[in-house]
Amino acid sequence: AKARAADRAAAAGGAAEPASLKKVSLLEDSRRAANVAIGLEYFSRQYRGDDDALCRAVASLSEWLDGPKLRSLQVQLPTPEEEALVRSYVDDAANDAARLARPERFFAAALRWPRFAARVEAACFRAEFDEQAWDACRAADKVAAAVAALVGSEGLGRVLRYLLKAGNALNSGLASGDAAGVALGSLGAFATARGKGGANLVDYVAEIFAERGQAADLDFVDALPSLAEAARYVDDDHTRGALRKLRSGLAQVQAEAKAAEASLSSADRKRAAALRKKSGEAPAPEVASPAAPATAKGRAALDAQATVRFVVEAGRCVDEAAKAVAGLEAKIAALDAATKKCRAYFGATGGPAAAALKLVFGALDGFASEVRRSRDKLRRKLAAKERNAKRAAAAAAKADPAAPAP
């Protein structure tokens, strides 16, 4: 009875639907049925309407099925209720599986694989983990680079130390006149508090640095990365959240590979091991799709080939993903150490690390913009002063040609 049921399911999945038979639709939701049928059309062109071949390609981790294609297919998978409907129909000897409508034929083909949804998810992870790990590493690198640039900036340190000295001098005799550091929250006040002529404290500092021949210290603003951009990657979702997702996906693929290997015969397990060793970095050979729907015996052989390929490619995926996870773990550990140092350096020791870094980046981004404005304003002022001096010298030389050149 089980063999006959398997044959009926295969006929539903592998054979083109006879036009003379009236379709049997088991789905009550007509919109869902239409969406599944439309979604499967793209795959029908590749696999000639053979749903067995499509499911076998998924189960074997076919190279043609990339991440977007797999995610598109994933939404077409049957729900538990839909599985029950199709299974009940196919298992009934009085029913003709060839009469099933398009969505139900695909569901019947998918039911031939005990853990088909898990295979699809494993295939998605294999197709996507590399890019996900790269994105997470890039996020960690951006935040770490911003932290390192701030903590390692000698010019920023000199400007902040001068502001601290100037602030303590201005507040001499007050409770705030003996500060040990510049509070991040006070950086904005240096720009808003204005004196005679509309100049603020940052303008004053720029003037002092220029008079001392230290104007180059203000150029630290040009060496800083975009702090606003770095702040967008501070949240844990970009790094630790991605790491948790990668670990979870890796564990699922490991479990699927183990289950798939256990389902193989001893000979096929040996074949999988030999194929993995022989193929090296190159993908294992694809499972060929038959020109016509296969018999039960032929399907069993093709399914075994698909499972062998799954074991080989899933094993390779596990190895590569484990390296990616280890690399991301190292970057996050380095970022944690740098973040701790940055928080201590700028006195942002309270609250979660992400919130503290956002405070640091936000305050210093605004402060750096103000320093850049003051520096550029000073440069324009000095350039204008130099031009005026040259004009005056030229005018004097014209009025008195005998006068010595300046």
Automatic annotation (TrEMBL):
Annotated signal peptide: none
Keyword terms: Coiled coil
Coiled coil: 243-270, 368-395
Comp. bias intervals (Low complexity): 282-293
Region (Disordered) location: 274-293
Domain FH2: from-to ranges: 1-397
InterPro entries xrefs: FH2_Formin, FH2_Formin_sf, Formin_Homology
One Pfam family hit: FH2
Keyword Ubl conjugation: no
Family annotation (PANTHER family): DISHEVELLED ASSOCIATED ACTIVATOR OF MORPHOGENESIS, ISOFORM D, FORMIN HOMOLOGY 2 FAMILY MEMBER
Name assigned to this protein: FH2 domain-containing protein
Organism: Pelagomonas calceolata
